[in-house]
Design brief:
CATH class of chain A: Alpha Beta
Radius of gyration of chain A: 18 Å
Number of domains of chain A: 1
Largest sheet of chain B: none
Largest sheet of chain A: 6 strands, mixed
CATH topology of chain B: MetI-like fold
Number of helices of chain B: 11
Largest interface: A-B, 23 and 18 residues
CATH topology of chain A: Rossmann fold
Shape of chain A: globular
Helix content of chain B: over 70%
CATH architecture of chain A: 3-Layer(aba) Sandwich
CATH architecture of chain B: Orthogonal Bundle
Order of helices and strands of chain B: HHHHHHHHHHH
CATH class of chain B: Mainly Alpha
Helix content of chain A: 25-40%
Oligomer: heterodimer
Strand order of the largest sheet of chain A: 7-8-9-3-10-11
Chain lengths: 246, 226
């Protein structure tokens, strides 16, 4: 169980705002954070990873206190055992695909390397350097690397944002596989309602710095203009990709 | 080639090499600290390190000479505890050279660290790696171009150092007489052919160093372009 109750000041284009997230998330969930740009989705992921310090509050994961402002506890990222996939992938340019994945391992495990390379269809690319990879390939490597550390929580910051429709669907499948393989809590940021519905077991909508809705995708999106508007945006995006592609 | 000529060039190379090696070792953590840490008086520290770039070398040499004097704390400490006299010695010009060339090593390294995306460090941390492992395995290999530039610029700068060396070390053959001082000395003695030999060697070394630096940087830019 992940328990979050944190506050953090954010600077947005609309001025300063307080991000206040208070929620509990079950283990083995695949939670999607949904909301406008600047809502605080990435900030929340960074707080969980220990990369951004909240102003106050508590973060507790399975009885381990990761952050507690009152008791001055703030575990560094190294001690939280999270797998974080960055928006820019953050693949190390000096390491090949295989070395990037191997770097994440705590103990050398060739069997795990082989299975990750196969799982993400990277066997033929194992010696390639990141600069020679396409966007989709980089994302697969980043995901494989995040998994190689055998994390307790997987945090994915807009993992499918820079991909075309076809590649996005393929990687949705990869993320789903990764989540099943690890069986750990996975939290991902997405703007795409179809993607959320296809992947998530629960959704959290962040609006104006607070959780405005949380539940299963059908509970959250079943009614109202939000679902229709978001679907319409997804359709427009797919159509524009189709026409631009042709 | 006469012994004096070889000895002077050897001493020049030794001073430049030692200065560059020592500066590389101490500048990497300094540059890391200045590039990534936020603290009060950071601009003061950065300015102090950069001072030798604008300060006349004779001013720095003068202060070094004062500091080396046994009448002052540093000089007294060195003489009484380590039995070391820095004024007019190779060790003295080496120390002054390190201080004088510090910005030429530190500045390119700060720029290099700043250009490495923050997410590389953060990714390494979330993968459980310590700041030291991240520094050695992630940052350092991606700093290669900046290290090459910093080393080359520092070495080239040391090779041509004159003001600081003559203030602190004087012109003692085999001890403090480096090529730039020798050129000045030979011109004073109207030995233009010897001065020309020294000058030509320094010219060649500087040209080779800069060609190597621009060549490597140009090649890397083409790689990025591709």
């Amino acid at each position: 169980m992940l328990e979050i109750d944190v506050k953090r000041k954010m600077v947005t284009s609309d001025g300063d705002r307080i991000l206040h997230i208070e929620t509990k998330v079950d283990e083995q969930e695949l939670l999607c954070l949904f909301g406008k740009s600047g809502a605080g989705k990435t900030t929340l992921l960074r707080i969980l990873a220990g990369l951004t310090r909240p102003c106050e509050g508590r973060v507790v994961f399975n009885d381990t206190v990761w952050f507690d402002s009152e008791n001055h506890i703030n575990l560094p990222p190294q001690e939280r055992n999270v797998g974080y996939m960055f928006q820019d992938y953050a693949l190390f340019p000096n390491m090949s695909v295989e070395k990037n994945i191997r770097f994440a391992q705590k103990n050398r495990d060739n069997e795990q390397i082989e299975s990750l390379l196969q799982l993400f269809d990277l066997v033929s690319l194992r010696k390639q350097m990141p600069s020679k990879l396409s966007g989709g390939q980089k994302q697969r490597v980043a995901l494989a690397r995040a998994l190689a550390a055998r994390p307790s929580i997987l945090l994915l910051d807009e993992p499918l944002s820079a991909l075309d429709h076809e590649m996005r669907q393929s990687l949705q499948h990869e993320i789903s596989k990764a989540h099943q393989m690890l069986g750990v809590l996975t939290i991902l940021v997405s703007h795409d309602i179809d993607e959320v519905c296809a992947l998530a077991s629960s959704v959290m909508i962040i609006r104006d710095g607070v959780v405005s809705k949380q539940g299963t995708p059908s509970e959250v999106f079943s009614s109202g203009a939000l679902a229709q508007a978001s679907r319409l945006l997804s359709e427009i995006s797919s159509l524009s990709e189709f026409f631009l592609g042709n | 080639m006469d012994n004096d000529f070889v000895q002077t060039l050897w001493l020049t190379g030794k001073l430049a090499s030692l200065t560059t090696i020592i500066l590389l070792v101490i500048s990497l953590p300094i540059a890391y600290w200045l590039a990534y840490k936020h603290f009060r008086f950071k601009s003061v520290i950065t300015s102090l390190i950069s001072m030798p770039m604008v300060l006349p070398p004779t001013v720095l040499g003068f202060y070094a000479l004062i500091a080396y004097s046994p009448q002052h704390a540093l000089g007294r400490f060195l003489e009484e505890t380590l039995h070391l006299r820095l004024a007019f010695s190779f060790e003295g010009i080496l120390l002054a050279s390190i201080v004088f060339s510090l910005p030429f090593m530190v500045q390119p390294l700060i720029n290099g660290f700043s250009l490495i995306p923050k997410s590389y460090r953060e990714a390494a941390y979330t993968l459980g790696k310590s700041p030291f492992t991240t520094f050695m395995k992630v940052l350092l290999p991606n700093l290669r171009e900046s290290i090459i530039t910093a080393v080359a610029m520092t070495f080239a700068h040391c090779i041509g150092e004159f003001g600081v060396v003559i203030m602190v070390g004087g012109n003692m053959p085999g001890e403090t007489r480096v090529a730039s001082v020798a050129i000045y000395d030979e011109v004073q003695l109207m030995n233009y052919s010897t001065a020309n030999r020294y000058s030509f060697v320094l010219f060649l070394i500087s040209l080779v160093i800069l060609t190597v630096v621009y060549g490597i940087n140009g090649r890397n830019k083409n790689h990025v372009g591709n």
